Amino acid sequence: MRSKKKKSKIRKKIKKYLLITFLIILMIIIFFEYQAVPFQKKYVETQAEIISNDAISEAVDNVLVKYSYNYEDIVNINYDSDGNVKSIETNAKNINTLKAAMNKAVQEKIETVTDADVSIHIGAFTELSLLSNFGPEVKFDFTFVGSFNSEIVSTFEAAGLNQTVHHIKFIVNARLITLTPDYSDGIEYTTDFEIAQSVIIGDIPATYANIGKLS
After folding, report:
1. At 180, is the secondary structure helix, strand, or coil?
2. Structural domain boundaries in the chain
3. Which end of the chain is more exposed for a tag (fewer CB within 10 A), N or C?
């Protein structure tokens, strides 16, 4: 009789432990389900920006290496007899050639990296840095499609007494739509690349203080 009661208590304890275990697992599942979508969205968008930006950088670098334009190929500065800047002339042909080549290279490169996947440790869902690399990895597949517009701009930066740094930059405004089985969303970001620069000695006329967009 005592043996039956003992077995009954053991079974109750087992059921109790199983119930507690089930509830804990259920709570963990609910927690990660609650955390997964917003975290996945943020993480995927970040990775899409990194991947696309790397692709854009590679494309632009390849074009710059191919054409090897220096500052004098893009800008011609004329001085007066006193050594002051009289005029700043840009080479429209070279600028347009460079921009067209970079636009084409960027578009072609972006089209080759539209599919990607990322793996995230489960601990990262807690958003606690100490646990970010803890636990097994969860893999997310996603795709993104991108479009962009670009311009080449000219800016001036004071660099000391009677010295000005003239920057020629390629600006890319990218727009991406990220797609996963759970959601789709759009992101936008801007990145720029230095095409050429030079230190100008002498006073610069106010009309050239900020040339702005070249192409």
Report:
1. coil
2. 2-213
3. N
Task: Report CA dihedral (101, 107, 109, 112) to the nearest 10 degrees.
Answer: -150
Number of neighbouring beta carbons within 10 Å of residue 102: 24
Sign of CA dihedral 35, 40, 41, 43: positive
Is the whole model's pTM more than 0.85, yes or no? no
In whole angstroms, give the CA distance from residue 193 to residue 201: 24
Q: What is the DSSP string of 153-175?
A: EEEEEE-STTEEEEEEEEEEEEE
Question: Which of these ranges, 13-17, 42-46, 62-66, has the smallest mean pLDDT?
Answer: 13-17
Residue whose tokens read 């509830």? 23
The pLDDT, as a whole number, for residue 33 is: 61
| E strand segments, 24-83 | 75-79
176 closest CA partner among 149, 150, 144, 142: 144
pLDDT tens readout for residues 48-78: 888 889 999 999 999 999 998 999 999 888 8
